Amino acid sequence: MNQLLTYFSLLLLSIIVLACNSENVSKKNIVETILTEKNSYYYVDVNKYPVGNRSLPVGVFDSGTGGLTVLDAILNYDKFDNGLNTFLPKGDNKRDFDREGFVYFGDHANMPYGEYEANKNTALLKEHVIKDVQFLLGNKYYQSPASKNYMNDKSQVKAIVIACNTATAFGKKDIEKFLEKAKLNIKVIGVIGAGVRGALSTINKSEDASIAVMATAGTVSSMGYVESINEQKVLLAYSGNLVVFQQAGIGLAGAIDGAKDYILNNASIPRTDYRGPSFNHSAAKINKKILRRYNFDFAGSKMLFAGSLENPDELQINSIENYISYHVVSLMEQILTNKNAPLLKTVILGCTHYPFYSDLFEKKFTELYNYKENGEYIYRKYMSEKINFIDPAENTSKELYEYLYSNNLFTDIFNPNHEFYISQPNVLNESVTINEAGDFTYDYKYGRKPGNITEYVKCIPFSKKNLSQDVIEMLSTKTPLTFKYIVDFNRNNKKTQYLLEEEKL
Predict the structure, then answer these.
(1) Which among 76, 125, 130, 124 is positioned nearest to 105, based on CA atoms?
(2) Residue 90 phi/psi, 5° resolution?
(3) In the predicted model, is pLDDT for residue 179 greater than 60?
(4) Rounded CA separation 203/328 (Å)
(5) Distances, alpha carbon 270 to alpha carbons 55, 235, 442, 450, in Å
(6) All residues at 6 or more sequence positions from 5 whose CB lies less than 8 Å from its CB, including other chains
(7) Exposure string over 420-447, b if 16+ CB within 10 A, otherwise e
(8) Under DSSP, is residue 388 helix (H, G, I), strand (E, B) or coil?
């Protein structure tokens, strides 16, 4: 009898535990957690949120460091007369956001965002995006990945810029619904609409032209740019034949951010954990028949290969320039098969990582314009001699300026304090799976189920501990003003005092 009672007691306990776990996994919602669960790290007291406070900074977020190109464009923007607040294409030699502070967040631990759609897990991506917004709205952060307790002196924000094309495509509407539910009147500006308006401005309204969108696989599959081009084409009364070609930049954003799945500087032979373009990649296949057209640079370990160099059995890309070469050629091969396509006139760099290397994109397109086989130009008849390259950050800056001005949100004091944060795997969370490099494993990163609201990551200040030397060098040379502010943040701000002096940027 006692054994029977014990059995039923254990059975009942198991049912209760399973029920609780089921509720935690399937019924939890990140929005409800943020708004109602006061004991959660993610909770934000929206009833006390300082909406309309002009002294607050602007929040900017991306899946990694690529969004710093957007922030840098904003910080350097000079297209308005700051006295009269009228648009001046040549500016007035005064940066338009000089008085404004910014809070930047890069969700590096969960990047690249473009891979979630390919892994049929856009619900998790949307959850990440809402968490990104929660971080900007909140005041919490950790000083290091090993910190057990969070700090609560991070600045809140008065407007939000989504400096990520994939997050804009999949998450902007969700963010707006969340803010509406929270009753927070905070503007959200995404880069896609801004990029499309910039692209159309390069084309006459009656002109036939092809527009290329180079973006992550997620952004491409979302059709966000295509839909926006079609909408704006009608709204702005374009009558010409506009044809859109998209190229999914598999591996490129990850390589720029130094993700080991796509690039490894000390590699010398093909890797089993490589996920970039190859002879056998289902969605990013290197075409062995046109190797000459890619014009890959094999110096050092920029290409990893097995077999002979002339006829390799296996080929893996291991440099950013070679990734760009692959994707530009792949785009032009698409256009080549469409014999009736108008001339390619404009290329939208539809991933915030890409403008870091706009010079290499331009170099590769010029190279292909002049490329010959058997004395004949292969691509020239499909390309304008001068192609316009659109960085959506330019129009994003304009829209942010106009919003702040029209809503009287420009600060009235000179207080340009900037904060920079990045996500890292939460090593204190036992459910987290990381590899030898300390990053999430690929299967764990893209295989988690949404609704399990746990602290997968810790959001911590930028430092040499969480930025690779390649990324630091890239930022210092390509975004010098933003890099200066990152250095100032690390040197002067109490939020980063845990860093040893020699480890500061």
Answers:
(1) 130
(2) -95, 0
(3) yes
(4) 21
(5) 52, 50, 18, 34
(6) none
(7) bbbbbbbeeeeebebeeeebbbbebbbe
(8) strand
Distance CA 145, CA 148 (A): 8
14, amino acid identity: S
Does residue 403 lie within any of the structural domains? no
174 lies in the same domain as 231? no
Residues 141, 211 share a domain: no
Residue type, 252: L
112: preceding bond cis by omega (within 30 degrees): yes
pLDDT tens digits, 238-283: 999 999 999 999 999 999 988 899 999 889 999 999 999 999 999 9
CA distance 229 to 346: 12
Same domain, 173 and 210: no
Number of domains in the chain: 2
In angstroms, the CA 196 to CA 396 distance is 11
Whether 410 maps to a domain, the answer reads no
Do residues 457 and 492 lie in contact, with contact meaning Cβ atoms separated by under 8 Å?
no
Element (H, E) at 230: helix 224-235
Angle at 66 between CA 65 and CA 72, to 5 degrees: 95
CB–CB of 70/476 below 8 Å? no
What letter represents residue 239's amino acid?
S
pLDDT digits (tens, 9 = 90+) for 130-174: 999 999 999 999 998 889 999 999 999 999 999 999 999 999 999
102: which strand partners?
A: 58, 418
457 shares its domain with 366 = no
Tokens of residue 347, six digits: 């290329």
Structure token digits, residue 31:
């929005």
Listed in sequence order, the residues at least 6 apart from 403 whose beta carbon sits closer than 8 Å to its beta carbon are 159, 187, 189, 409
- Residue in the structure block whose two tokens are 């899946």: 63
What does the block give as tokens for 302? Answer: 């920029």
Contact 404, 96 (CB under 8 A): no
Joined tokens for residue 409: 């949100």
Kindly report the CATH number assigned to the domain that includes residue 356: 3.40.50.1860
One domain for residues 163 and 60: yes
Query: Residue 25's closest CA among 129, 127, 172, 132?
Result: 127
Q: Which of 200, 184, 188, 192 is nearest to 166 (CA)?
A: 192
Which domain does 449 fall in, by range?
27-190+416-503
Which pTM was predicted? 0.83
Token pair recorded at residue 8: 């039923």
Residues recorded for the chain:
505
Regarding whether 224 and 168 lie in a shared domain, the answer is no
Residues 234 and 375 in one domain: yes
Q: Decide: 125 and 171 in contact? Cβ < 8 Å.
A: yes
